[in-house]
Amino acid sequence: MSNPFLKKLGFADTDRVVILHADDIGMCQSAVSAYSDLVEFGVVSSAAVMTPCSWFPAAAERITQLAAQHPDVGVHVTLTAEWRNYRWGAVSTADPATGLFDAEGYFPRRTDPATAHAAGAAVAREIRAQIERALFFGVDVTHIDSHMGTVFTPHYLPIYLELALEYRLPAFVLRYDEAQLRARGYDATAASDLTRQARSFEARGLPFFDHIYCMALDAHEDRLTEAVQALAGCPPGLTHFIIHPATDTPELRAIAPDWRSRAADRALFLDEAWRTAIAESGVHVIGYRALRDMLRAR
For strand 284-286 and strand 16-25, is the pairing parallel, antiparallel, or unpaired? Predict the structure, then answer.
């Protein structure tokens, strides 16, 4: 089924439209410095910042300094803290009764405990607080998306999307049907509920994505080859192309076992060969601001 928002953006059903998106900005200092480098180079078209992390203020400062060069920055809605020894918690509360925290007092490391224990009202307050924190620090928020996909459950998805409508922000969600969701590991009930929920919000005007591609975090070699092949195989529709860029520093190596892939993402998006490959691929690169402008013009 063709994406109705392509035409609203001025594209044909056969066009391949891609957002080149940098995740986890502000997770640590090396992610902030990588963001600066990528903006200066000018290939990445969107990014999302993690407001609960300790390096968020520095990220927000750099984002506002670079706003004229790179205006598309969203809130990477965060309800998990996955690393072994580098953790963060909620912006909205410190109350363990909300179910937002693990036994150590931080967000859970995995999505399953987060979705099993966090109360819906607490999740709604936390998402709102993260958006408001970004706005307070001067970030012109262009969208919201989800760290580790934690909001993509029948219990939390309507909360996430209602807040997107309230703030008139596009929210990253895929236009998957039940069969596609079941293939990604959802049971029949969850797949049915998520499909119904997503379609109802799409009917209310939220633009959704047709495809997603995430540069591998478990393999760092041949990054350019992987990226070029991904663009070549990009189908018609709207695609969310994700990288996790970070500068190779002792800090990054201490935090992230997948540091090689994160450093490789930074190097890829500073590579002139990649810039040329994008130009020759035939895809149309946009940012989230185009989706936000379309949503707010309704």
Answer: parallel
- Mean of pLDDT over the chain: 96
CB atoms inside a 10 Å sphere around CB 293? 12
- pLDDT at site 298: 77
Q: Show the 3-state SS of 185-214.
A: CCCHHHHHHHHHHHHHHHHCCCCCECEEEE
Distances (CA, A) of 226 to 68, 198, 291: 31, 30, 27
**pLDDT at 1 (0 to 100):** 73
On the 0-12 / 13-18 / 19+ scale of CB atoms within 10 A, 1 is exposed
Q: Scanning the structure block, which residue is given the tokens 């935090």?
A: 255
**90 Cβ contact partners less than 8 Å away, ≥ 6 residues apart:** 52, 98, 100, 101, 107, 126, 129
Domain 4-296 class? Answer: alpha beta
Structure tokens at 130: 């993260």
Task: Average the pLDDT over 30-40 and give the result.
Answer: 98
Q: How many CB atoms lie within 10 A of CB 12?
A: 10
Q: What is the pLDDT of residue 2?
A: 86
Structure-token pair, residue 19? 């957002």
The answer for residues whose C-beta is within 8 angstroms of residue 118's C-beta and 6 or more apart is 79, 98, 99, 100
Q: What span, in angstroms and rounded, lies between the C-alpha atoms of 266 and 246?
A: 6
Q: Is the pLDDT of residue 168 over 90?
A: yes
Question: Structure tokens of 48?
Answer: 């999302």
**Mean pLDDT value of segment 92-102:** 97
What are the structure tokens assigned to 112, written together? 């399953």
Helix (H, G, I), strand (E, B) or coil at 29: helix
| Residue 145 region by backbone torsions, left for phi larger than 0, else alpha for psi between -120 and 50, else beta | beta
The residues spanned by each domain of the chain are: 4-296
Contact between 74 and 141 under an 8 Å Cβ cutoff? The reply is: yes
